[in-house]
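User: Mind token order:
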Amino acid sequence: MPLFDKPLSELRDYRPERDEQPDFDEFWSRTLDEAAQFPLDAQFTPYDAALSLVDVYDVRFSGWGGHRIAGWLILPAGATEPLPTVVHYIGYGGGRGFPHDWLSSPVAGFATFVMDTRGQGSNGTPGDTPDPVGGKNAQTPGFMTRGVMDPDDYYYRRVFTDAVRAVDAALTHPLVDASRVVIAGGSQGGGIATAVAGLRTGLAGAMFDVPFLTGYRRATEIVETLPYYEIARYLSIHRDHEEQVFRTLSYFDGMNFAARATSPALYSVALMDTTCPPSTVFASYNHYAGPKEIRVWPYNKHEGGQTFQTREQLRWLRDIAKNS
């Protein structure tokens, strides 16, 4: 796969104008206030994962609309003092999987909180959280156009709200150090983490690995790959919905959240990535308001740096934990 997007020298300076609605902050303040009407009621139930070096808890907490969201809390075995914590969000279609899928940060000494993604978990890794709410408009298969005609009804309004409340749920556990919470995710998980970084203060750091859900219009114009292609496919049928679709998506664009985020961040990008194009990642990175670093993988597609990026993240996390 040859390079198809802007050259790296241009990507480093690529900072497109953001499409942001005047009531963006009010919309999200209202959304989170509505969610706050429901008690978190975070519950941690011991779980037999057959792993001797970690303690595992099955998690349930109330997300958007009071809907119960599943997750895992994985702790270094026998921990007695509050720990630096990583809250993980999951890639498109995947679910929370099993505790043994999430061992890199616990063995590095971090508490690890994994949030299941509502309605997903039937692609790659299993999930346990339904989405009781459906969009009111017709949609293409997938999640990108579910409720896309109305920001209040859009699928990711619920997911992003769940994700903010996942941090709150993690903080209710006595072994989570509130001053050292880092959020993390790859692809869709990276897009979810970007939203949380822009919506919630008090984070010690954020890690966005080849993030999705940013620069929607450009992505639909330069690649014909899923999941962004779900939007283009919808608009190829609903030709008269373009203006409203992109207006809705502007409330969920990673660039707008990045411009509000202030915690230290570690990004990654792959220059041959036709799923999350490099220019969309750099658009988020270059708008990010806090201290930031980016790791560039020139010859990779959406797999990005994989285990090499994990090594970068573990080293970065070690420094964040020391400095927080």
